[in-house]
Write a structure and sequence with these properties.
39% of the residues lie in helices and 26% in strands. With 149 residues, it is an alpha+beta fold.
Length: 149
């Protein structure tokens, strides 16, 4: 599906309620990231915030977060930490990622939190939160919520 088709579908969905679209990101698939950014750029606003700034800073956040590393030779090494982006019609963007934790330290999560705080302010989000949960065999799920009131 082309970007313009997605923008048109979003516009139709907005007429009947609050749309929600979830995209999956993988390394080497810049088309999906470009589609997400293009859709954000096409939105009228994030409660009167500049959607061009939101789009630019969203790309910066996704690209600046640490890349995944599982073990030597793993084909998923170097993938985006964020592998799922949800755009919601209530001016919310949700980011989700999963990574293997070898020697997790509080400093690692604090770096992610500081980056989200900096970029959240730059995109003038009213709320920006980061949560992490651990499960399974050394897996950590990162959830980022950006919201404009």
């Amino acid at each position: 599906m082309e970007l313009q088709d997605i923008i048109n579908a979003w516009d139709v969905l907005e007429k009947v309620g609050k749309p929600e679209l979830t995209f999956t990101l993988h390394k080497g698939n810049e088309t999906t990231l470009n589609t997400i950014i293009g859709l954000v750029e096409s939105m009228p606003s994030f409660n009167d915030k500049d959607n061009q700034v939101v789009a630019r800073e969203l790309r910066r956040l996704i690209e600046m977060l640490p890349k995944t590393y599982y073990n030597e030779g793993n084909i998923n090494n170097g993938d985006y930490l964020i592998n799922q982006v949800t755009l919601k019609g209530d001016d919310t963007i949700l980011l989700r990622g999963v990574k293997l934790v070898k020697e997790e330290t509080k400093e690692d999560f604090d770096k992610i939190r500081r980056l989200v705080n900096t970029i959240g302010k730059d995109m003038k989000a009213d709320e920006y939160t980061v949560k992490n949960e651990f499960y399974g065999y050394n897996m950590q799920e990162i959830k980022i919520r950006l919201w404009w009131d």
